[in-house]
Design goal:
CATH topology: Four Helix Bundle (Hemerythrin (Met), subunit A)
Largest sheet: 2 strands, antiparallel
CATH superfamily: CDP-alcohol phosphotransferase transmembrane (TM) domain
Structural class: mainly alpha
CATH architecture: Up-down Bundle
Number of helices: 13
Number of strands: 2
Number of domains: 1
Order of helices and strands: HHHHHHEHHHHEHHH
Length: about 280
């Protein structure tokens, strides 16, 4: 009869303490999840200040959430600490911070004066963010199999960018509150803007991804200087800076589409219909 396989030398020489240590979770792997929780807490606190009517503080806390959202993903990749629970936690945090919170900031700021249309815009924006995140979670395994050049583009605008763009009227109001008071009839237009930004989130129009950013070594110092300039600008002129960044991002959308079309031609990929992309239709459906 054949002999039963004997345990390997590694298994035989392994002490109980060593076997137990393999099942322990290193503390550093929890850091990305803690950052995500801080982003979630910041978003909830922003919601509290919005309900109290302190829109300035609410927007600042939402900006803090956006910064923490960038850091948690970068930290997870750097520490190789990604996990399924971290991905789900990040998705839930994004829905609250960049779907619910900006919608309610806009509603408490002025959309409530647009009546039922203002509430429809509030709910539509939050729902659009939820749909975008759900699509992202479902399509993530398929995205990993796509061509390298397409990984440099998002499908639609990401939820943090959508939250920032939706608050563009608020940035303008911070600069000229008296003008907005005289133009209170424009509240329905702000509702339309909110719905439009929500539609861009669930669309499949290509927008730039951070994976497109590649810094040449000789450009390191200029890039660092630019980052320092942006940081100082956010500290001393936050609303003007956010307003300029929002307009720059809007301008980048057609440029990203043009670059995407160029890649399609270079790699002999059939171009999708722009209407289908704008409406978010699945190209494989």
């Amino acid at each position: 009869m054949p002999k039963a396989p004997s345990p390997s030398k590694t298994d035989a020489s392994e002490t109980p303490s060593e076997a137990t240590s393999k099942n322990k979770l290193e503390l550093y792997k929890v850091i990305p999840n803690l950052i995500t929780l801080m982003a979630l807490i910041s978003g909830l606190t922003a919601l509290q200040f919005a309900i109290k009517g302190d829109i300035h503080v609410a927007v600042i806390l939402l900006l803090v959430s956006a910064i923490l959202d960038m850091l948690d993903g970068a930290t997870a990749r750097l520490l190789k600490a990604g996990s399924p629970i971290g991905a789900q936690l990040d998705s839930l945090s994004d829905f609250l911070c960049f779907g619910v919170v900006p919608a309610f900031i806009l509603y408490m700021w002025g959309l409530d004066e647009a009546g039922k249309f203002g509430w429809i815009a509030t709910v539509a924006f939050a729902a659009a963010c939820a749909l975008r995140l759900a699509r992202f979670n479902v399509e993530q395994p398929a995205v990993q199999k796509t061509s390298a050049w397409s990984e440099g583009f998002f499908q639609g605008i990401p939820s943090p960018a959508g939250a920032g763009l939706s608050l563009l009227p608020v940035y303008i109001w911070f600069q000229a509150p008296d003008t907005f008071a005289a133009l209170s009839f424009a509240n329905p237009l702000i509702a339309i803007w909110t719905i439009l930004v929500g539609a861009l989130m669930i669309s499949r129009i290509p927008t730039w991804s951070s994976k497109q950013l590649h810094i040449h070594p000789k450009m390191l110092l200029p890039v660092m200087a630019f980052c320092a300039f942006m940081f100082i600008s956010l500290l001393h002129a936050p609303w003007t800076t956010l307003m300029i960044v929002s307009f720059a991002y809007i301008i980048s959308i057609p440029l990203a589409l043009k670059a995407f079309r160029k890649y399609e031609r270079n790699y002999n990929v059939d171009s999708e219909d722009l209407t289908d992309m704008a409406l978010g239709f699945d190209k494989d459906a």
